Amino acid sequence: MADLSQKEWDRFEKPEHSHVYKQIATVMHKGISQEEVAQFYSKWADDLQYEKELPEDVYNAPIVTAAAAADGMTAEEKASVRVFDVAAGTGLCSLWLRSHGFQHIDGLDPSEGMLAKARAKNLYDRYICDFITDKRLDINDDTYDVLTVSAGLGEGHIPCCALYEMVRVVKPGGRIVIVTRAQHLETVEEYRDRLEPLMDRLEVEGKWQKLERKIFPGFFLDKEGILWKYQVC
Ligand SMILES: C[S@@+](CC[C@H](N)C(=O)[O-])C[C@H]1O[C@@H](n2cnc3c(N)ncnc32)[C@H](O)[C@@H]1O
Q1: Over 60: is that where the pLDDT of 197 sits?
Q2: Longest CA pairwise span in the chain (Å)
Q3: What is the CATH number of the domain that holds 215?
Q4: What is the whole-number distance in angstroms between the Cα of residue 158 and the centre of ligand 1?
Q5: b/e for 160-193, b at 16 or more Cβ within 10 A?
Q6: How far does residue 87's CA lie from ligand 1's centre (Å)?
Q7: Considering the chain, what is the average pLDDT of its residues?
Q8: Which positions fall inside the Methyltransferase domain (predicted)?
Q9: Does any ligand 1 atom lie closer than 6 A to the CB of residue 225?
Q10: Per-residue pLDDT for 2 more than 80?
Q11: How far apart are CA 40 and CA 6, in angstroms?
């Protein structure tokens, strides 16, 4: 289940770090189904354990995602644009988006338990309990100015084909920010030699244009993150 050797386990400074690593390893194990993923997160959300176990010094994906979404936008733009937070979870990314001045944010997540925590904090205008895949969501074309995905990729998580649906619901000129663990590009079969080639193909087809791609530290403990930022054409 956990993709760690004993040597790697020994390196954790705090016992709670090995616990949260086990949680992540469980929800991202090879062969996990979409439904099992959603159920696992619903249990993890109980008593806000998910948030307690992933403080900023352990997990910075929502911070990095929101900062990249806000970068280059004026205060007026941020106050008026519509944002779609995909894989919203308990709403950590919405909290950071709001701190940057975004005010109109909808959220999608297949885990009812995770979304319930976001709902209790009134973090989204609309709550959509669903998976993003290649299936058409109940959202019109060109609805959003900004789409964010903070850590929604992994084993059994968002599939490559969902990129089409993301592009469809964002307006021309709007931006899409996707952040995940960098390691996933190699370890997750769904993404290996598929995710970035598809991103490139969408660019060649004139669907979007890459603004940024960067590797950053602190995504999750000592694991690096990768961020892509695209502008929809
Ligand atoms: C690590 S959590 C990230 C939550 C939040 N964005 C954050 O940064 O705290 C991953 C989330 O992805 C959601 N998820 C998994 N598969 C998904 C899919 N196909 N579509 C949308 N969300 C999905 C899970 O339910 C879970 O809430």
Answers
A1: yes
A2: 51
A3: 3.40.50.150
A4: 8
A5: bebbebbbbbbeeebbbbbbbbbbbbeebebbee
A6: 4
A7: 94
A8: 83-174
A9: no
A10: no
A11: 25
C-alpha distance from residue 188 to each of 23, 30, 85, 183, 216 (Å)? 17, 8, 23, 8, 19
Q: Which atom of ligand 1 is nearest to the CA of 54?
A: 9
Ligand 1 atom with the smallest distance to the CA of 85 is 6
Per residue in 133-171, pLDDT (tens digit) is 999 999 999 999 999 999 999 999 999 999 999 999 999
Cβ–ligand 1 distance for 96 under 6 Å, the answer: no
> From ligand 1's centre to the CA of 229, what distance in Å?
18
Q: What is the pLDDT of residue 145?
A: 98
Domain that holds residue 139: 61-232
Residue partners of 17: CB distance under 8 A and separation at least 6: 58, 221
What pLDDT, on the 0 to 100 scale, is given for residue 21?
84
How many whole angstroms from its chain centre is CA 178?
Answer: 6
Atom in ligand 1 nearest the alpha carbon of residue 110: 25
pTM of the prediction? Answer: 0.94
37 CB less than 6 Å from ligand 1?
Answer: yes
Q: How far is the CA of 44 from the centre of ligand 1 (A)?
A: 12
- Give the Cα separation of 152 and 61 in Å (integer): 10
Question: Is residue 3 one of the residues assigned to a domain?
Answer: no
Q: Which protein residue has the closest C-alpha to ligand 1 atom 4?
A: 89
Q: Identify whether 83 is part of a domain.
A: yes
